Each structure stands twice: as C-alpha cells, then as structure tokens.
Automatic annotation (TrEMBL):
GO CC annotation terms, alphabetical: glycosylphosphatidylinositol-N-acetylglucosaminyltransferase (GPI-GnT) complex
Pfam families tied to this protein: Glycos_transf_1, PIGA
EC number: 2.4.1.198
Annotated Glycosyl transferase family domain residues: 332-476
GO molecular function: beta-amylase activity; phosphatidylinositol N-acetylglucosaminyltransferase activity
Residue ranges occupied by any PIGA GPI anchor biosynthesis domain in the UniProt entry: 184-273
Name used for this protein in its record: phosphatidylinositol N-acetylglucosaminyltransferase
Annotated metabolic or biological route of this protein: Glycolipid biosynthesis; glycosylphosphatidylinositol-anchor biosynthesis
Signal peptide positions (record): none
Length: 575
C-alpha cells in the first residue's frame, strides 16, 4: 500500500470511514443484494474512499479489495454491522484469511473472542456465522446491565423455519434482554448456532417425524433442558406453539426445576374433532402451572381460556408486529392494467386452498384484466394446478411455489390486492405484511383477522366462494382510492416490535414476581384437569420430579459449566 493510502486509512479511523462506506452502500441501494453483490459493492465503496477512484458499480467485475491492517478491517466490519446489516459484515469477516486475524484473537473455552472488536465466532460443524456482542452493557448474549433476567425461548418455529413464533424473538435484542432459543434440528442444522444480533440457538439433536414435530418423549429431554437452563443462567422460560411437543416438555421440566414459565399461543383450535380434543387436554396440562400466558388476539385469548380453563386475568393479549423497514411499498405506483391479486400462504386445507380453486376462475371470468400470483407450496397445490389447466388460465395465474422470506416483499410489491382465504387464524401476520407494502387486503372473516386492520384497509368476507368473489369485486372498485405510501405510514404507527417488547416485558416482570411453590402445592392444580387425566398428570409430574432429583445427585448444579459472561470491553488473559 502506498504511504498516502496508509495515511488516509489511519487518519479517517474506523468510525468515520465506515460512515463514508455506509453512504456509498446506501446510495447504491444494495441492502437486499446477494452476498457476492454485497462484496462487490463494498469493495467499490472502499475504492472510492481509500483509493480515490470510482469504478463502474454496474460492472460484473469485482474491484480489488484495498489492503489494510487486519485489525482495522475487523473494526470496520464491527462498525458496519451497527450501521448497515449483518450480511455485509459477514462478507467482511469471512473473506479474511485465518492468518490475518490470528494475532487478534484469544480462545475462550469453545469460543473465539476477537480482541478489541466485540466479535465472537461460534464453532460448530455447520458453516460459521459471525455476530456482534451487545455494546450497550450486559453480557455477550444481550443481558441488561441491571441484571434483571435472561429468557429462554422454546419454540418449534425458530430460525430455520419461518412462522409467527419466530418473529416474536427478534425484538428481544433491542430491549437488551438475554435470549437463548432451543428448537429441534432442521435437516443438517444441529448444535449451537449464533444468529444476527447475538441470538443463540440450540438445535437439539431430535429430528421431526410428523408436521415438523418431534416424537414425544416426556422425560427424554430433561437432561439437555436442565443443562441448558443451568449453563445459560436462565431466569424465565417462554414457550411458543400449542402443537410443539418440545415446547410442552421443556415447560414441564422448567416448572419442576422451579423456573418461572410463560406460554404464547399462536393458534386457534376447535372443540369437537378428535385432534382438537387431544390437543386441548395437553394444553390444559401445560397451562395448569404456568405463571402467565400470552395470546396474539382477543379471539385467541377467548379460545385459549376456554380450551385450557386458565384464569382470564393471567392471559394477556399482545398482537404480533411487522418490520416496516423491510415491508414497504414500491417507490412508484403500479399500473392498474392489469390488476394483480397476490396470494402467499401454505397451500393446505386450513389456509383455504380449496376456496381459491373456486374463487379464482370466477374472478378471472368477471374481470379480464385481473391476474393472480400464488406463492406457497403444500398438498393442495395439485388442485390449483388442475384448476389452472381446466380453465386455461396459465397466462393469468402464476404459481411461484415456496417463496423465501427474503423475497416476500418483492412478490407483494408486484401486486395491488392481497387475498387471504384462511379458514382459521389467530392473527394472520401475512395481511399485516401486505398492508405494510401498501396492498389492499381481501380476507375471510375468521378468528382474530377482523382485529388486525382498520375497515378501510381490508374487505372481509365469509369463507364462502360467492361472498369472497363479491369482496374482491368491492376491493377492485375502491382500489383507485388506496394510497400505498399512506397505508405504510399508518401500519408503521400502529405496529412495531418496540411496542411488543415493552408489553411483553411487563408480562415478564409480573411472572418474575410470582412466588415459587413446592411440588405438593402445585399438584392440586393438575387434579382439576379431569377425573382420570388429573391423576395421570400428577403421576407424570411426580416422576419428572424424581428424575430431576436423581440428575441433581448424579451431576450437581455446581458441576455444570456456566457460559462465561464476556463483555465487549473485557480483556481475557491468556492461560
């Protein structure tokens, strides 16, 4: 490197330099680009700033990467992560050769800490991910400096499988609440991983056997759950999804060990069919001894209280939210010819795929200028394909298949109306994402859907083909009056993860104030679950308690290695 270039690097400093890089990257609008494109754009920014040249950004040739000190490079990545996003930072760090960064790291147990950078590396068999520790105080996993509590979240829908349960985990880092997630293994994803913003995920080695659910073991998960709770110094356990066997087992073990427990229900269930009767009894068992419960809508709360028999005053309503920085309208308003109706959902019976088979041909017959875009996959996709062939609608109905979450916004921005045909919904975050992108919504009037959007943003219909066709006709009539940008701003003011964070933190505080009770004091709650079921549940809890005590004798809590509290400014001495 030339002397003048070295002076420029040293003079500007990482914080000032990264602001210049940030401005270039922002100007080129490459936030959603792939990693190869991000690397190219970042290199372009460096060449503009450090080498004082301006290569062609559109060129497919990757510009040379300016030479600089490895530590400066890491600091730049550290600052860039705070100002831009995780994937750009990943491009920075993963492109460094190991020999370049070895002088700046120390090994701490199984983790590697980057000295002076606040960056650590998760070691696993899977590809390495890099994350940034919390700079505002607290431990490396995001615990508050006041040391209030750390949260363990057990969920079937977590990183690796998108769903409403996964969205609720994203806000925690913004409130500086330590979060550790446990879920089952997904394909080749197992072990411990560190996600963006420092979220730590345990992918326990249990593979799903049916509908993404693990085989119930009752007590097989006790050893690993106990180890994680002790090792991570968990104060509170938060479970998600009523049909997650792993969630129910983890909450049972947590109560046996004396932890405060919260459960969030994201679904609606009936009362008559065999499957619902079974799940309702399981939910009654789990909620018999939880500290608090959360539902995503008032309809969901009524459903949960009726199914579980839980006191209504212990159930709180906290709706989901949407990332309005990600889901926003297209810069330019789309032409009204043709009118595009977007459907994004799993193509299953519960999501109303059979309704779509009858509605789409009728709408296409009534409105020659209407097209449909259907994103999603499932067992009902075959029926939709047959419908398209039968009515010769190949040029008017596009079947996209499964749509990655990162591409949902681009699909939504290609349409004018979002169609939701679900037969049951507790909240339906999909219509919230569509409204944030400026789409007028047509939806079935089921579950908690009427609570999500104001009347002027949504047209509701009965789950009946003729009524849905009438609702789509009404939506097409009022479509010219819709301003996508105004709708986006209204959604931004109504829904935010910051608000979800504040309200959920209140529930956590109330749960932490609940008194601990012994096993004998808790057993009467299970007896209220039924004449025979109550006795069976008591037996299950007694056996769980005995097994836990045996584990305590075999490996006392003091012998479980705790996760080190590594602060970003803390220096680790070599052993």
């Amino acid at each position: 490197m030339k002397d003048s270039e070295q002076d420029t690097t040293a003079k500007s400093g990482p914080q000032e330099l990264v602001q210049q890089v940030f401005r270039v990257v922002k100007r080129e609008e490459v936030y959603m680009a792939g990693e190869n494109a991000l690397e190219r754009y970042v290199c372009v920014a460096y060449n503009q700033i450090l080498l004082n040249v301006k290569p062609n950004v559109v060129s497919k040739k990757v510009p040379p990467k300016p030479k600089m000190e490895a530590l400066t490079y890491l600091r730049l990545g550290d600052e860039l992560l705070k100002n831009v996003n995780f994937r750009i930072f990943k491009v920075f760090v993963t492109k460094l050769h190991v020999d370049q960064i070895r002088p700046y790291i120390w090994k701490v147990n199984d983790e590697i800490l980057f000295k002076d950078c606040g960056v650590y590396e998760a070691k696993s068999k899977a590809p390495t991910l890099f994350v940034l520790s919390d700079k505002k105080g607290g431990d490396a996993w995001g615990g508050t400096s006041e040391g209030k509590w750390r949260r363990g979240a057990w969920s079937r829908f977590t990183v690796g499988n998108e769903g409403e349960g996964s969205g609720g985990l994203r806000w925690s880092r913004s409130r500086h609440v330590g979060v550790v997630v446990m879920t089952h293994a997904y394909a080749n994803r197992s072990g411990v991983r560190y996600m963006t913003n420092g979220l730590k995920v345990y992918y326990v080695p249990w593979k799903p056997f049916l509908m993404q659910n693990t085989l119930p073991t009752f007590y097989g998960t006790l050893p690993i759950v106990r180890t994680i709770l002790i090792r991570e110094k968990i104060s509170l356990v938060h479970g998600h999804q009523a049909f997650s066997t792993l969630c129910h087992e983890a909450l049972m073990h947590a109560r046996t060990m004396g932890y405060k427990v919260i459960f969030t229900d994201h679904s609606l269930y009936g009362f008559a069919d065999v499957g619902s009767i079974h799940m309702n009894k399981v939910l009654q068992f789990t909620l018999a001894d939880v500290s608090q419960a959360i539902c995503v809508s008032h309809t969901s709360k009524e459903n949960t209280v009726l199914r579980s028999g839980m006191p209504p005053e212990k159930v709180y309503v906290i709706p989901n939210a949407v990332d309005t920085t990600m889901f926003k309208p297209a810069p330019e308003r789309l032409s009204m010819d043709p009118i595009v109706i977007v459907v994004i959902s799993r193509l299953v019976y519960r999501k109303g795929a059979d309704l779509l088979v009858e509605v789409i041909p009728e709408v296409c017959h009534l409105f020659p200028n209407v097209r449909f875009i259907i994103g999603g996959d499932g067992p009902k996709r075959v029926r939709l394909e047959e419908m398209r062939e039968k009515h010769s609608l190949q040029d008017r109905v596009d079947m996209l298949g499964a749509v990655p979450h990162a591409k949902v916004r681009s699909v939504l921005n290609s349409g004018h109306i979002f169609l939701n045909s679900s037969l049951t919904e507790a909240f339906c975050i999909a219509i919230l994402e569509a409204a944030s992108c400026g789409l007028l919504t047509v939806s079935t009037r089921v579950g908690g859907v009427p609570e999500v959007l104001p009347d002027d943003m949504i047209v509701l219909a009965k789950p009946d083909p003729s009524d849905m066709v009438h609702a789509i006709k009404e939506a097409i009539r009022i479509l010219p009056q819709i301003d996508p940008q105004e709708m986006h701003l209204r959604i931004k003011g109504m829904y935010s993860w910051q608000d979800v964070a504040k309200r959920t933190e209140i529930v956590y505080d109330r749960a932490m104030r609940c008194s601990n009770q012994t096993l004998l004091e808790r057993l009467p709650r299970y007896l209220t679950c039924g004449a025979w079921a109550g006795k069976l549940f008591c037996l299950v809890m007694i056996i769980d308690f005995i097994l836990w005590r045996l584990l305590q004798l075999w490996q006392p809590d003091s012998e479980v290695e705790l996760v080190p509290d590594i602060k970003p400014t803390q220096r680790i001495q070599r052993s």
